[in-house]
Write a structure and sequence with these properties.
- By secondary structure, the chain is mainly α.
- It has one domain.
- Helices cover 78% and strands 3% of the residues.
- The protein has a two-stranded antiparallel sheet with strand order 1-2.
- The protein is globular and about 60 Å long.
């Protein structure tokens, strides 16, 4: 299982890297939007197994529109005019549907789960898309925007792998047994070590394309923060799966499970990672 998961992670990364090499920034936008839609869909499926009834189809479509529009209409990381407008419109539409056709009890079982799914997945992932857009406007001939996003993804996923390997072999002290009994402090240490190593190796492979002001200690500190955020993000998904009584969010990816299982840690590390890099490294 562990070997299959590692192989699937590597194959997925190489496939995405190939798409980015051929299609560039637009390929990255398409890939992120695709996995965002699948993740949002699977989150709603888990909610249905819990007993909630989110507007699965329409909310996922709104999520795709919000994400794609965020890249093409935005001008920077904190230019959220479009995102806020679309979110307000989406909430207004679902609220109108609630009061015209629903009951007050539907606030808990339909309206709130629907809005949470939009906020937690596509709205969060608007932040890395806006980051790509902003850097593309500043350095339109540079691959730096994609390199930063890929670096965060690599650090995050190797953090997951490190936690799995070290935690399964040496894990004894439970970290969050209510959410996930398999998470241990030893696994968290493994996550941090793997994330630091992966971040440094990725930067080394980039050669002169990697910015000299984001090296060594700075990079290691951000890697540690990402590994910690990845654990928190992963535990949120574990909580949903525990409530739904499911081991995986789906079965679309061999060795990993569903798209939500793949994206669980990235949902928080991508937005938080780009905010940290933008605010404390680049500007």
């Amino acid at each position: 299982m562990m070997k299959e998961r590692i192989i699937s992670t590597i194959v997925l990364f190489l496939s995405i890297a190939g798409i980015l090499a051929v299609m560039g920034v637009f390929g990255g936008v398409l890939v992120l939007t695709f996995f965002s839609a699948l993740t949002q869909w699977e989150l709603y499926q888990l909610m249905e197994k819990i007993g909630w009834k989110p507007h699965k189809k329409s909310a996922t479509i709104f999520g795709i529109i919000i994400l794609m529009g965020s890249f093409f209409s935005g001008k920077g990381l904190f230019d959220f005019h479009y995102d806020i407008s679309m979110l307000a419109l989406t909430i207004g539409i679902f609220a109108s549907h609630l009061v015209s056709m629903g009951k007050p009890e539907d606030l808990k079982s339909i309206f709130l789960p629907t809005i949470f799914g939009i906020l937690y997945v596509p709205i969060m992932l608007c932040i890395p898309l806006s980051f790509i857009r902003e850097l593309s406007l500043l350095w339109w001939e540079s691959n730096l925007p994609l390199l930063f996003i890929l670096w965060i993804i690599v650090v995050t996923k190797f953090s997951d792998i490190g936690g799995l390997i070290i935690g399964s072999k040496f894990g004894k002290h439970k970290l969050a047994p209510v959410f996930s009994p398999q998470k241990t402090y030893e696994g968290l240490l493994g996550s941090i070590l793997f994330s630091i190593a992966a971040g440094r190796i990725f930067a080394f492979c980039c050669g002169h394309s990697w910015p000299s002001h984001f090296m060594d200690m700075k990079m290691d500190i951000v890697s540690v923060l990402i590994a910690t955020i990845a654990l928190i993000s992963d535990l949120v998904e574990s909580g949903f799966k525990r409530l739904a009584g499911e081991k995986d969010s789906g079965n679309t990816i061999s060795g990993i499970g569903g798209a939500f299982d793949l994206m669980d840690s990235l949902i928080l590390t991508l937005p938080m990672g780009v905010i940290i890099i933008r605010e404390f490294i680049l500007f």
